[in-house]
Amino acid sequence: MLLGGRNKVYNLSMNTLTEELQRIEWDPRQYDKEYCLMRRNSEEQCQNYIRLYGKKDNGDVYLCGTNAFKPRCRVYKKQPDDSFKMVTEEDGVGKSPFHPMQNSTAVYTDGMLFSGTVADASERDPLILKIHQGSMVRTVQHDSKVVNDPDFVSSFDIGDKVYFFFRETAVEHINCGKAVFSRVARVCKNDKGGNYLMKNLWTSFFKARLNCSIPGEYPFHFDLIQSTSDLGQGNPMSTTHSANRTDMVYAVFQTHPNSVRGSAVCAFRYSDIVKTFQGKFKGQSSPSHNWLAVPQQETPVPHPEQCSNDTHQLGDKALNFIKSHTLMDKAVPAAGGAPIVTMHGINALFTALAVDWQVHAADRRYYDIIFIGTDDGRVLKSINKGHGTKVESVIIEDIQVFENKAPVTSMKIFNKKGVKKLIVLSNSNVASIPLQRCAQMKTCRTCIGLQDPYCSWSNNECVASDRGFEGILTGHHENCGVEDTTTVPTKSTTTTTLAPPTTSQKPCECKCESPKKDGLQSEHNVPDNSEENVPRKEEMTEKKESSISAADTAIGIVCAIVLSSIISFIAGYKVHSCRKGDQMTANPGEIYGTLTKNHTNKLLDNKEPRYVNHSDLERNNSVKQLNLLVNIQPKGSNLPNGGAPAKTVVNLTQPLPDRTYV
């Protein structure tokens, strides 16, 4: 396994995760590093971080690195002793990012390099680029309708197209406020750009939104895509037939940081992605209009979704439409109409995932087993046990892989020569864990309770086989007896630690670390009948006496409250009778003024009303004019209640203190 790091490419053995072969050393050029430091970048940033890997048809390795904010690319040829020798070096702008933490992606296929990154150090020129035999095709420069401040996540090729997954600021939503949506974009491999109108620009670039949301009258969206699995053949629903599988991809999503904290895993069928790109486009008549679906009759024929054999022959009408309509109207729906796994609240967030496609279980069904990495160094193993269209997720295992809780950044499943393991990476560590730990379950009940498609109970032991019996749907099986003992498995993990970073984002040097042991997070209620838990007779007597004393005290308190209430009522009635005569002889204006001062203007008290328009308050010792309308019926009037004679306006002014309202 070639693992890109800082100034190095580690050549690790997949069996032991140790460096048994020679690593590739690649430091930044000295004058590039000095110039990087002059631009006030840190010493850590001014290194060469390997960010792109590709394998050519002849077996040569194509690598690109940041090279102290001046990207460079090299071609290495493998030698007979398994070492690598540099063959050529070239400029890496548009292929590799400038900043080591800039999100980017690339795929090398059919002798062509397709990359999604930025073309400048300021990250103001994002692009999707194709390089083939010295020619270049890219997205339109500085056009927010094409790509708008994107974060590229992954890419893969299938057939005659290459697909890119990323998130970006949604230009179609800008009239309703800023929002970030997840996208899938596609280009044709043989796209050469237009002849004159769109020379060296994509004529096959289109994008669509990815819909990962909890359905309902008001769907709850997970808008920020974080990672995807490799393209594989699977089925998000368990099935009894191996043929019921299709090309698909799983993806990890998160909510916005200022929203409800949560993350989810959604599955997308390749057929649904193709169907979306075959549909209507979204556009706007002018910058002041809303984004609406473009009528079908305005779409060029043939539909632009089809790859052209010679893009130089496309007419101006078709090119004008393609240039101004890059967004599809419909979003790509999630398979099953809902996320496969979700996590909410204060728990960790999902960051990466890997999938073991269509594992055959002992219940004669096939399952996609999903391994999900978190931002606190854990790996969750999950399946959808639901039959038909029902999603019923099960978390089989929860393993703490990195003791320092370093976020999981990437995961791969290694399956070669009968050895299957999960490779887990962070910014400074790489670890391997087994895909299953069936043998550590010592009883039938605990083995079946795992609900793990890898495991079954056969010949009085828990084995990694599909020939025993298991109960994935319920976690129980009638052939299992009642067992009270439980064995909690310990984790078998091989870890290689890279040099500790000065920041949480820094990749580093390699050193070995002893395996770490962790167990499954499981809960078992075991009754405890020991003598220590049996209360003594003396303790029971003391509790009873305490209860009687407390009851007497409560009765006394109630009597005191009732007596004090009666005395307070009598005293209040006397005081009210004494003041009634004085108030009847007072000036009506004084009465209303007193009421206004003590009750109406709550801003003078610390008890501010719940809804207050603070922008209307004058804050610099100004005078606030309060107009109070007072209805006073003329003496001798026969107007009924609710009559509206001439009203007297009493103007009351109250100076407001100099206060700041938040």
TrEMBL record:
UniProt entry tagged with the keyword Repeat: no
Region (Disordered) residue spans: 484-546
Biological-process GO terms, alphabetical: axon guidance; positive regulation of cell migration; semaphorin-plexin signaling pathway
Organism, scientific name: Mytilus galloprovincialis (Mediterranean mussel)
Pfam families: PSI, Sema
Subcellular location: Membrane; Secreted
Stated name of the protein: Semaphorin-2A
Listed Basic and acidic residues bias regions: 508-521, 533-546
PANTHER family in alphabetical order: SEMAPHORIN, SEMAPHORIN-1A
GO cellular component: extracellular region; plasma membrane
Domain of life: Eukaryota
A GO term for molecular function: semaphorin receptor binding
Annotated Low complexity bias: 485-507
Residues passing through the membrane, by range: 554-573
Domain Sema, chain residue ranges per copy: 1-435
Alphabetized UniProt keyword annotations: Developmental protein, Differentiation, Disulfide bond, Glycoprotein, Membrane, Neurogenesis, Secreted, Signal, Transmembrane, Transmembrane helix
